[in-house]
């Protein structure tokens, strides 16, 4: 009996100390307008109970995310529902479901994306904010209570719509509402990292991706921007914020010079070694007790 209790206790400790856990996503809208978040689970991962909803300015909601979940989250803007057909559509980030729920459909670019793989390699969560598919609103991801990895906040708090080059700009009634990626705008393989440019050696930052990178140094700016844009954390919950810097800026914003920041990613082996030592110490103490 004592041995069975010990086994259960050890399993519980291993699950906690190695970061195998469910997470809570708290999604906050700090924009001055309504945002309709959309959620898409990755291949082989079950869809969450909700895949789309609305958040009024200042409103927030929390979701319980299961162990091992992977997927992406984004904000839809300028959404309307047809009073006759009840068809729900959004000017940016629309998922094409015609309803509030995205139901397994992803964002139509351009859209700012928060991407997650929870409890991935070595039990770490991997997360980023990506502008690879373009940009439609500011967004940040902030880990809470993490115990390993680098647990760095990341995202893009700048209003890129105001500073978007004319050839990438998406406008509605004269207002800039989104900023395309160069891949979407031109379809050139060198911008899309496809064809002969489908490797890290052949696909390099472009003039356009460098504009995004200058404004938002921690966000993904093109397909192979892993080194400065992939963050890791162990055992964290996450706060995803739309318009984290008190809302988009005015049309006078200009793209800033790149900040001198280190990348999100770093070797997490010290944290993993510490977790292993803790597990072994716990096993030893429990063995002595029993």
How would you portray this structure in words?
The chain has 290 residues and is an alpha+beta fold. The chain has a single domain (22-268), classed as Sandwich (Thaumatin), CATH 2.60.110.10. The chain is built from six helices and 14 strands. Strands 2, 4, 5, 6, 7, 9 and 13 form a seven-stranded antiparallel β-sheet that branches. A hairpin with a 6-residue loop joins β4 and β5. The chain is globular, with a radius of gyration of 21 Å. The termini are close together. 41% of the residues are buried.
Helix content: 10-25%
Number of strands: 14
What CATH calls the topology is Thaumatin
Terminal Cα separation, in Å? 10 Å
Helical stretch tally: 6
Give the DSSP E fraction (strand runs of 2 or more residues). 25-35%
Specify the CATH architecture: Sandwich
Instruction: Outline the low-pLDDT stretches.
Output: 1-19, 246-262, 265-289
Radius of gyration: 21 Å
Sum up the overall morphology in one term: globular
**What's the CATH class label?**
Mainly Beta
Oligomeric grouping of the chains: single chain
- Topology pattern, helix = H, strand = E: HEEEEEEEEEEHEEHHHEEH
Q: What's the overall average pLDDT, rounded?
A: 83
Structural class: alpha+beta
* Corresponding CATH superfamily: Thaumatin
Domain count: the total is 1
The largest pleated sheet is described as: 7 strands, antiparallel
């Amino acid at each position: 009996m004592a041995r069975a209790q010990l086994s259960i206790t050890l399993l519980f400790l291993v699950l906690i100390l190695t970061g195998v856990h469910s997470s809570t996503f708290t999604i906050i809208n700090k924009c001055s307008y309504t945002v309709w978040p959309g959620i898409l689970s990755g291949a082989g991962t079950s869809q969450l109970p909700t895949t789309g909803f609305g958040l009024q300015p200042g409103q927030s909601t929390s979701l319980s995310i299961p162990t091992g979940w992977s997927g992406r989250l984004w904000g839809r803007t300028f959404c309307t529902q047809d009073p006759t057909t009840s068809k729900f559509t959004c000017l940016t980030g629309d998922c094409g479901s015609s309803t509030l729920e995205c139901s397994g459909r992803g964002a139509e670019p351009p859209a700012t994306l928060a991407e997650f793989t929870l409890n991935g390699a070595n039990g770490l969560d991997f997360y980023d904010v990506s502008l690879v598919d373009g940009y439609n609103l500011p967004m940040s991801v902030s880990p809470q209570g993490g115990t390993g990895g680098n647990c760095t906040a990341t995202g893009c708090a700048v209003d890129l719509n105001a500073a978007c080059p004319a050839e990438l700009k998406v406008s509605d009634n004269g207002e800039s509402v989104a900023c395309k990626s160069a891949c979407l705008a031109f379809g050139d393989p060198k911008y899309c990292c496809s064809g002969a440019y489908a490797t890290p050696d052949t696909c390099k930052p472009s003039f356009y991706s460098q504009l995004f990178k200058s404004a938002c140094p921690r966000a993904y700016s093109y397909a192979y921007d892993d080194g400065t844009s992939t963050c890791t954390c162990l055992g964290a919950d996450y706060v995803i914020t739309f318009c984290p810097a008190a809302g988009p800026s005015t049309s006078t914003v200009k793209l800033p010079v790149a900040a001198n920041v280190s990348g999100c990613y770093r070797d997490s082996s010290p944290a993993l070694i510490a977790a292993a030592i803790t597990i072994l110490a716990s096993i030893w103490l429990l063995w002595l007790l029993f």
